[in-house]
Amino acid sequence: MFNRFLQHLRLNLDKPLLGPSAWAAMMPSSRVNMQDNIAPDAKKAAVMLLLYPVDDNPYIVFTRRHEYDGPHSGQVSFPGGKAEFGESMWDAALRETYEEIGVQPNKMNFIGELTPIYIPFSNYLVYPMVGTTNEKPEFVAQVSEVAGIIETPIDCFFRYDVVKTFDIYRNNTTITAPYYSIDSHKIWGATAMIMAEFLTLVPHNG
User: Is residue 91 part of a domain?
Assistant: First the structure.
């Protein structure tokens, strides 16, 4: 099953990606499409959508940030971070994934990449990389950066009740944000938008 899943994904990654039209389903109410207005000084970052088999079923891994006094406190995200000077986006994703959750770079294989997404709030242009391992990794969280590791079957994202909404008060306004409800976690914002595009590319049983 896992190999068939990857075959299907590779084929679809060779086709034109949906980008903003796929993101729209998970876009918070405050967000506008900024892809045509990317700041010239935008910083580059890469995140890893790391896929691996568990009993031959495809899984994906997320990280949970620590609680702190800031806008991303406690949020769920993909492993990733800012690219270093001269580093390719794939190499940045490999390095950050190793640093955050302990997966050796030589264990991860490149599958493809999704549409880069601009985050005006932090002025980052984020490049989503899709990778895979041949077997379930032994994850080790970098405790200074990662509060928790969340392992999730891809099929969970196709449950009829997985998408919910919540309200959050920011910058003197109330924002309504859709999110993926995975166990007790809210996956929202740019992470959910990236995931929405990814889910258009994969097979499911529903």
Answer: yes
What is the spatial distance between Cα 92 and Cα 201, in angstroms, rounded to a whole number? 23
- Provide the 3-class DSSP secondary structure of residue 196: helix
Complete DSSP assignment for 17-58: P-THHHHGGG--TT----GGG--TTPEEEEEEEEEEEETTEE
Task: Name the residue range of residue 70's domain.
Answer: 2-158+189-199
- The average confidence (pLDDT) of the chain is 91
CATH classification of the domain holding 72:
3.90.79.10
Q: What DSSP line would sit under 76-129, residue for residue?
A: EE-SEEEPPTT--HHHHHHHHHHHHH---GGG-EEEEE---EEETTTTEEEEEE
In a domain, 206, yes or no: no
Find where tokens 């859709």 sit.
178
Q: What is the number of other CB atoms lying within 10 angstroms of the CB of residue 12?
A: 16
Mean pLDDT of the region 80-91: 96
Give the percent of the chain with pLDDT over 90: 75
Domain count, the chain: 1
Tens digit of pLDDT for each residue in 98-138? 999 999 999 999 999 999 999 887 889 999 999 999 999 99
